[in-house]
Write a structure and sequence with these properties.
Oligomer: single chain
Shape: globular
Distance between the termini: 49 Å
CATH topology: Aminopeptidase
Radius of gyration: 26 Å
CATH superfamily: Zn peptidases
Order of helices and strands: HHHHHEEEHEEEHEEHEHEH
Structural class: alpha/beta
């Protein structure tokens, strides 16, 4: 046996020293186990473990309650009225439906118009826009923090002169998934608040003023302005979903998304055995410009979930931007896959952020998520 330095200091007999050491070890075990004699005051690690267990149960419940039938119904309702370009009756009907479904969750829903007339980079040519672009949003409170996650999807569709463009995959599928995710989170909230945002004016459209102005990603522009006004520090992560209904779903590993948060979605897909849609060996690619405006205001914690090849083949795919972008080219299973993977990933991200916030709070004299 190696000599015990502490025991040697306390007594001259090695046997007595060993006895004291054993007594000391027993005392320390009791103190650590029972919280320094205060059984009614659990340690921070104990509280963290209890919260982690509760969060895991809630996450499993959310995933189990995601209804592919409701999500598919949402997609059908959004597309059965035909085209949804900005300023159209179809666009208004889609927004009204989304509003009614969110209001049924007992949350306050806000619609707000985007002022984009003089936005830099949003148009080409001269003229003042005459089309109203109206976003829709609602906040589901968190259980332990009002710092928020953003779940964002477009709901409009592009208008073509040559054919009717329903935009079931491009413009409606992301909204259908986000709406059903909102239902599950409203029933079992995350630790962080979740803001649901449906964007209008994401597809390119022309101003009817006769000057040839063309606008795109206007809904994102309006959301970015709102975030900047309120302060980006309150936004912990943003997830942007579009083109997630393809029956042959392959989600792109977006090169511009936040690396750590993006990989949580691939881990979630592996855990849920959904790797066909989220291939383990998915190549990195630029999945689009939807979140470019958010990077301009300094918001980097964004993940884009999008299939860049609708119907296979090379991007953008066989059916992208064609009359074939209809609900029969989509799949309920694709909506379900994206929904449950997003829920699993959000839970993992919330757990990661809670640890960071708890550590920061303990250093500031606070012991919980801020």
């Amino acid at each position: 046996m190696q000599p015990d330095v502490v025991g040697a200091k306390w007594c001259t007999s090695s046997l007595a020293g060993a006895s004291l050491l054993r007594a000391f070890s027993l005392l320390m075990f009791v103190l650590l186990t029972f919280g320094l004699g205060c059984a009614s005051t659990p340690s921070l690690d104990s509280v963290s473990s209890q919260e982690a267990g509760a969060d895991l149960d809630a996450a499993s419940a959310r995933i189990a309650s995601f209804s592919v039938d409701r999500a598919w119904r949402d997609l059908r309702v959004l597309t059965e009225g035909g085209e949804r370009p900005v300023g159209s009756r179809g666009n208004d009907r889609a927004r009204d439906y989304l509003r009614e479904e969110l209001e049924d969750l007992g949350v306050e829903v806000e619609s707000w118009e985007v002022d984009y007339a003089n936005a830099a980079g949003s148009s080409s040519g001269a003229g003042v826009p005459e089309i109203r672009v109206i976003n829709l949003s609602a906040i589901i409170p968190g259980t332990r923090s009002q710092h928020r996650f953003l779940l964002v999807a477009p709901f409009d569709s592009r208008s073509y002169d040559e054919f009717e463009f329903v935009g079931a995959n491009d413009g409606a599928s992301g909204a259908a998934v986000v709406l059903e995710i909102a239902r599950t989170i409203a029933a079992d909230p995350l630790p962080y608040a979740v803001e649901i945002v449906f964007l209008d004016g994401q597809s390119p459209f022309s101003s009817p003023d006769g000057h040839g102005a063309v606008y795109r990603e206007v809904g994102s522009l309006g959301l970015a302005s709102r975030i900047q006004e309120g302060g980006i520090s309150g936004v912990r992560v943003m997830v942007y979903l579009n083109r997630v209904g393809d029956a042959d779903l392959r989600i792109a590993r977006d090169l511009m998304s936040h690396r750590i948060y993006r990989e949580e979605f691939w881990k979630a897909a592996a855990a849920l055995d959904r790797t066909r849609a989220f291939p383990r060996d998915a190549a990195f690619e630029n999945a689009g410009i939807a979140h470019g405006v958010f990077g301009q205001i300094g918001l980097r914690q964004i993940v884009t979930i999008v299939d860049t090849s609708f119907g296979g083949d090379q991007p953008p795919g066989l059916y992208a931007g064609t009359a074939q972008d209809t609900i029969d080219r989509c799949s309920p299973e694709s909506l379900e896959t994206v929904g449950v993977v997003v829920l699993q990933a959000l839970d993992a991200i919330a757990g990661r952020l809670a640890k960071i916030d708890r550590f920061a709070g303990s250093r500031d004299g606070e012991g919980d998520v801020r």
